[in-house]
């Protein structure tokens, strides 16, 4: 890695020869395969943009020239070239983020990794440069072809064409894939450009002819390549498409030919107005296991063997996604109205199995969550029951459509939110922690949060049976946890997981937080404090039995892995007050902050959602004083008491005395 070791910033590239740049590209690919195989991450997308990224940093002067990545998962090479070469803790606490992050480097501009937003960012930044007398600065937006399926991209293009006096370069990184193969009319248009027989035949024969002339012939070929592009553009409608938007078009360019890429980018840089550079790349370039992976070309991998690409992770538990995927097929076999919809995430959300079994009943709309939701409302009107499967973080983008197109029209649409709650290594923009607070304000919506695989199957079946309102099923990232059977189920479907002989604390858990609630109850029991633990299964609307149980307890504690402000705990407290129940409610959840990347357990510990922290606080609340407990909580050492000893028994009698004091 001799060349890569010598690169501490983009300007170190200036001294390298063409041959050294080619070798550097090879070194970077070897580095990515070696390092990402240890930690997991977005491997395929970064292997595909090595030369493109090198060319960008040779031609433009980052950070003076602003570089915006859409989406940020293809920024690993950018990180390497801007001095960040320690990938040992990639996507782990204290290590490099998997996306651009301003706190890491001034070279990182946009942190959000939601697709289709880069052109709007670029439009705004370039306008600001012009307005503040910095018009000589350039803005470069690297947008994947999949992002062109999102409507926001075209809104931006419409406005970019409104002012042609800006130094704005839009690089369309066209590999025919967003996550999986790119969907829709724009994808077919770009695919036509890539695969047009006349284009390929003319280019291949010409390149071969000049190649037979040796080094001088290859040099001549590169020299006339720009002219060839002009000639070949006669065989496509690219010029017409973008000229109608008043945006200069250059391409298509071989994104793996460093000289071609640099030449095209220098032309764009000198143009003095918005330019689109259309570059053709290959996802997973240079790594055979990735190229052989037809499904997603190693878009995102866990820990793998770098030689074979085989996973080395050892979990034997099924994932939440796989349980959903199988159960949806089972339900669809029985109900012909069920149809799946996803936004460029067919395999990640598990809809691929339904597509394989019933290919006519799955719609992938591209990176277009808003369209997916409103289209689902239309399908429901026409007699189908759509199941819209997206990551929880991406439902934020379609809130208006959930509210006004689905709920207002009483459409029977089921939303399945994968990666809900704390997701861990992908960081702030990918945590699915806003859905509970955002969606519960939608009138008549019903929200379910399964705690295990059995409940997921149950609640999915219940969700698709609802025909007059939106239903939501949310579950976590990763493997399904331990099954917890209920002691009993109430008439309105609440699972009571634990009942105590005396009713001190009612713990209401949301989905996979059931295990945490049971662990807390065990610690409280060791102090003589009785705790009832319930899983509502359907958390919105709040089941009546939760209100009845709360009436009989001294404290209600809600535990959720969503934002605490406006979360399920808030809903429970409001419903209790509306019912005339004045039992205190302790709402436990996540702070209204952007949580950095780390493992799920590390983040939950950081915010105090651990059995020890919750139990200690509850002991203090029940006893009416904040002092260490007389007997240690399980797993803890005995603590020093402050100024008094607690009674030997800390059960019902003591609590009744506390009640009289109140």
Category by helix and strand content:
alpha/beta
* CATH level 1 name of the largest domain: Alpha Beta
Low-confidence stretches: 182-187, 193-200, 219-236, 625-635, 637-662
Computed over alpha carbons, the radius of gyration is 28 Å
Q: Largest sheet, if any?
A: 7 strands, mixed
Would you identify the CATH architecture of the largest domain? 3-Layer(aba) Sandwich
Mean pLDDT: 85
Content of β-strand: 5-15%
CATH domain fold name of the largest domain: Rossmann fold
What is the name of the CATH superfamily of the largest domain? Thiamin diphosphate (ThDP)-binding fold, Pyr/PP domains
Spatial sequence of strands, sheet with the most strands:
7-6-8-9-11-10-16
Give the overall shape.
globular
Terminal-residue CA separation:
71 Å
In total, the number of domains comes to 3
Number of helices: 26
Share of helix among residues?
40-55%
Q: What's the number of extended β-strand segments?
A: 18
GO biological process, one term: terpenoid biosynthetic process
GO cellular component, one term: cytosol
GO molecular function: 1-deoxy-D-xylulose-5-phosphate synthase activity; magnesium ion binding; thiamine pyrophosphate binding
Region (Disordered): 634-662
């Amino acid at each position: 890695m001799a060349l890569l070791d010598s690169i501490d910033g983009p300007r170190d590239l200036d001294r390298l020869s063409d041959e050294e740049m080619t070798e550097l590209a090879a070194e970077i690919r070897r580095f990515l395969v070696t390092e990402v195989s240890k930690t997991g991450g977005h491997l395929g997308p970064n292997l595909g943009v090595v030369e493109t990224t090198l060319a960008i940093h040779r031609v433009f002067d980052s950070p003076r020239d602003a570089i915006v990545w859409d989406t940020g998962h293809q920024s690993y090479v950018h990180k390497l070239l801007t001095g960040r070469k320690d990938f040992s803790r990639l996507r782990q606490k204290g290590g490099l983020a998997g996306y651009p992050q301003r706190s890491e480097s001034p070279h990182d501009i946009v942190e959000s990794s939601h697709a289709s937003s880069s052109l709007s960012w670029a439009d705004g930044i370039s306008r600001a440069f012009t307005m503040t007398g910095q018009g000589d600065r350039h803005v470069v937006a690297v947008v994947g072809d999949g992002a062109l399926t999102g409507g926001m991209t075209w809104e931006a293009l419409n406005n970019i064409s409104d002012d042609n006096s800006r130094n704005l370069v839009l690089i369309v990184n066209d590999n025919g894939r967003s996550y999986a193969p790119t969907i829709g009319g724009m994808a077919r248009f770009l695919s036509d450009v890539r695969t047009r027989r006349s284009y390929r035949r003319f280019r291949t024969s010409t390149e071969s002819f000049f190649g037979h002339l040796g080094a001088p012939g290859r040099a001549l070929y590169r020299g006339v390549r720009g002219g060839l592009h002009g000639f070949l553009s006669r065989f496509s409608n690219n010029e017409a498409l973008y000229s109608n938007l008043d945006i200069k078009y250059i391409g298509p360019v071989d994104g793996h030919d460093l000289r071609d890429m640099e030449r095209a980018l220098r032309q764009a840089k000198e143009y003095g107005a918005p330019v689109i550079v259309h570059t053709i790349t290959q996802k997973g370039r240079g790594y055979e296991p990735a190229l052989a992976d037809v499904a997603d070309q190693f878009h995102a991998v866990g820990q793998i063997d770098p030689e074979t690409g085989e996973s080395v992770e050892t979990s034997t538990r099924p994932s939440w996604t796989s349980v959903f995927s199988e159960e949806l097929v089972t339900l669809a076999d029985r109900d012909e109205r069920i149809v799946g919809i996803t936004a460029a995430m067919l395999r990640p959300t598990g809809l691929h199995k339904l597509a394989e079994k019933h290919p006519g009943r799955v719609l992938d709309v591209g990176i277009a969550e808003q369209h997916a939701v409103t289209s689902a409302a239309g399908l429901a009107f026409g007699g189908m029951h759509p199941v819209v499967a997206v990551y929880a973080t991406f439902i934020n983008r379609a809130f208006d459509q959930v509210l006004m197109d689905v709920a207002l029209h009483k459409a029977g649409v089921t939303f399945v939110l994968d990666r809900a709650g704390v997701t861990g290594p992908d960081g702030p923009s990918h945590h699915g922690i806003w859905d509970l607070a955002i969606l519960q304000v939608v009138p008549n919506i019903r929200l379910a949060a399964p705690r295990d695989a059995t409940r997921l199957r149950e609640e999915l079946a219940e969700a698709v049976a609802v025909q007059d309102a939106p239903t939501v099923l949310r579950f976590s990232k990763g493997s399904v946890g331990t099954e917890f059977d209920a002691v009993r189920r109430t008439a309105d479907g609440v699972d009571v997981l634990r009942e105590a002989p005396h009713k001190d604390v009612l713990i209401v858990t949301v989905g996979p937080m059931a295990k945490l609630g049971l662990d807390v109850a065990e610690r409280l029991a060791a102090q003589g404090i009785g705790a009832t633990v319930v899983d509502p299964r359907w958390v919105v609307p709040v089941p009546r039995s939760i209100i009845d149980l709360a009436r009989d307890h001294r404290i209600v504690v809600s535990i959720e892995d969503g934002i605490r402000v406006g979360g399920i705990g808030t809903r429970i407290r409001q419903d209790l007050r509306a019912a005339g129940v004045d039992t205190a409610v302790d709402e436990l959840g996540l702070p209204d902050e952007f949580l950095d990347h780390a493992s799920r357990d590390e983040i939950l510990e950081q915010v105090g959602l651990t059995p020890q922290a919750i139990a200690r606080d509850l002991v203090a609340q029940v006893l009416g004083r904040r002092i260490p407990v007389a007997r240690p909580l399980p797993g803890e050492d005995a603590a020093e008491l402050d100024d008094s000893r607690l009674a030997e028994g800390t059960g019902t009698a003591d609590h009744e005395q506390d009640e009289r004091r109140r």
